[in-house]
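so my prof wants the structure for this chain in the tokens format not the other one, which i didnt know existed until like an hour ago. anyway here's the sequence
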Amino acid sequence: MVLQLTIVGGGKLDFEVKKMLNAGYTARDQSQVQKHIDELRKEGIAAPKSIPTFYPKIADRITTADKIEVLADNTTSGEVEFVLLFAQGKVYVGVGSDHTDRKLEQHNILAAKQMCVNVISAEVWRYEEVADHWDDLILRSWVEKDGQRQLYQEARLGTCMKVEELINKVKGQVTGDLSGMIFYAGTIPAIGGEICFSRRFEAELIDEQMGRSLSCAYSVEPIVWFKGEMQIG
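here's what i got, hopefully its the right format
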């Protein structure tokens, strides 16, 4: 899997995905971790055995497309995350969504992570350009609810674990170096604490200091051409 990305400020990045890792429960404030655990518990998803948690993901389960397919009658949802990409000794930053099947997650979280693709922005930043004001960057997401675009998540990255701490923890989870790895760094709580199963998801990472943003947006398209029964579990 090779992602053809644009580096904001100039340049192209043909990123060969060799490893992919999704993290969970990475808030700097443990009360925020508990909020997300409570959100998932309402959907029948058990609390994690350790915090943070890490889930390897098959390397081709990622896209920059504006549409993803899911099973009919699905219970899938997106969640905004900042994404770190490690290439040739450099670190790049994107924004993405760890789209997950919540019903399957009740039975097997690792398997649920493989069911849907990760979505990532087609543009990335050089981490070195935002490192000095990292905590001030803003994560936001929107869903479609009752036919209206609605703000779903919002927080500054100062609420998330520090990048250096996350990278050190990632190194403890993998063999070899991090070159070719894409790391989804965990999400932030939903506004109101309820998971929304939306047919549309938008994610954004905003840099107010430099007056720019990264974004990805996609529609969720259930498979409707199959007449047989589709059942999980």
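also thought this was worth mentioning. Residues 30-42 form the longest helix (13 residues).
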